[in-house]
Design a protein that fits this description.
Blueprint lengths: L4 E2 L10 H13 L4 E2 H4 L10 H6 L26 E5 L2 E5 L29 H9 L5 E5 L8 H12 L6 E5 L2 H4 L2 H4 L2 H12 L3 E6 L9 H12 L3 E7 L8 H14 L3 E5 L14 H13 L9 E6 L2 E8 L3 E9 L8 E5 L12 E3 L2 H4 L11
Parallel strand pairs: 4-5, 5-6, 6-7, 7-8, 8-9, 9-10
Antiparallel strand pairs: 1-2, 3-4, 10-11, 11-12, 12-13, 13-14
Helix pairs in contact: 5-8, 10-11
Bound molecules: iron/sulfur cluster.
């Protein structure tokens, strides 16, 4: 099916003239993009429809809040287009376009005109990966790699797979949610995935479903085809205000994903990214949503970790009591931080580690508010 892209609010029939006029300045600042497949999933009679909220701008995005690179990805970018924060995993930002744009995106800086973090020339990143034998996993991301043709994506994957120490290629994608026809209508893509899998390179599709209503029959079929081609499929998403900020939605999402064979891998605490204030959910509230959702699903449906992708590492948030929030470094840039517990005074309004008072934990967590110097290559 031919999916038509909508790149201007004036082409969005679901909005009134007045709404379009008010939202134009927001779309000028943080780019808007949608397509008619996803547009048809939205209940336009409901101004608070969660899928509408996921893609249609809000005026409050213009509030002065957060920073464009909230996880300081620039600090972990040894060469243009390549990030290396955790020893075994590198990221190649191979594309700066997605099937639609999530309003809460933490990489929205990529879609701005003057940004060059993503690059079509992945040669420097590839050379960096080849020089670093500790890198066994490469995540192709951006933007969405599945926007690219099977030929272009296949060429990048071939080059990455030719590096002997790379055993896993991950493809971060929301195309199965935004436009599953990208998979359904491209036998070349599926054939290419099959060939890679048969040749011994493990391919993981890191899907991005935020809400159970995105799991349409077409989306389920797309996930199934990727799996049948030999790919592994998992899901990751943040908790987003107005989209999935209640345990019932998450329980349903976890459950359905387990039925589809695409289990939840991470649930993310929203990063304090510029433009994202209306989408943020405080840490303590997010923890309660996550725990309650887990209480209502089977063991296979609750394997995810609730994590904060902080500049010092991936910090799992696993408990809250009346006085404290309990966390642990699940991944850490500084090896000595890995596995370390972080205990902070409970603050029900805090969104991010930097707003908390850490009472025990490694120095990087304690000093996070004061500024953190990553190691350099
Ligand atoms: S699919 Fe991912 S990269 Fe693209 S807009 Fe959404 S969150 Fe951002």
């Amino acid at each position: 099916m031919k999916v038509r892209y909508i790149t201007h609010l004036s082409k969005l029939d679901g909005l009134t003239e007045e709404e379009r006029r008010r939202l134009e300045p927001v779309a000028d600042r943080y780019v808007f993009r949608l397509n008619d497949y996803y547009c048809n999933l939205i209940n336009w009679d409901d101004p608070d429809d969660p899928l509408r909220r996921l893609v249609v701008p809000l005026e409050s995005e213009l509030n002065d809040w957060g920073e464009l690179d909230a996880s300081h990805e620039a600090d972990y970018t040894p060469v243009r287009g390549c990030q290396h924060k955790y020893s075994d995993t590198a990221l190649l930002l191979v594309n700066e376009v997605c099937g639609a744009y999530c309003r809460y995106c933490f990489r929205k800086r990529l879609f701005m005109n003057d940004n060059d973090d993503a690059t079509l020339d992945y040669a420097p990143g590839l050379a960096y990966i080849a020089e670093h034998e500790e890198i066994t996993n490469v995540l192709l991301t951006g933007g969405d790699p599945l926007i690219m043709s099977a030929r272009r994506l296949g060429a990048i994957m071939s080059d990455v797979a030719a590096v002997p120490h790379v055993r896993i290629i991950r493809i971060g994608t929301k195309m199965t949610a935004f436009n599953p026809y990208r998979v359904l209508d491209d036998p070349d893509l599926l054939e290419m995935v099959k060939e890679f899998c048969e040749s011994g390179t493990r391919i993981y599709f890191m899907n991005h479903f935020d809400h159970p209503r995105e799991l349409t029959p077409e989306a389920r079929e797309a996930v199934k085809l990727l799996r049948q081609a030999g790919g592994m499929t998992v899901n990751q998403c943040p908790i987003v205000r107005g989209v999935n900020d209640n345990w019932q939605t998450f329980a349903s999402l976890f459950r359905e994903l387990s039925f589809v064979g695409c289990p939840q891998y991470y649930v993310f605490q929203g990063r304090p990214t510029a433009g994202n204030e209306p989408y943020e959910v405080p840490i303590v509230e997010g923890m309660h949503i996550f725990l309650e959702a887990n209480r209502h699903v089977s063991g296979l449906a609750k394997r995810a970790r609730f994590s904060m992708s902080h500049r010092t590492g991936k910090i799992e948030i696993f408990g809250v009591d009346e006085r404290y929030i309990y966390m642990r470094y699940h991944r850490a840039h500084r090896k000595e931080d890995y596995g370390q517990m972080v205990v902070a005074l409970r603050d029900d309004k805090a969104y991010w580690l930097d707003q908390l008072t850490v009472v025990s934990g490694p120095q990087s967590a304690i000093e996070s508010a004061a500024g953190y110097e990553p190691y350099h290559w």
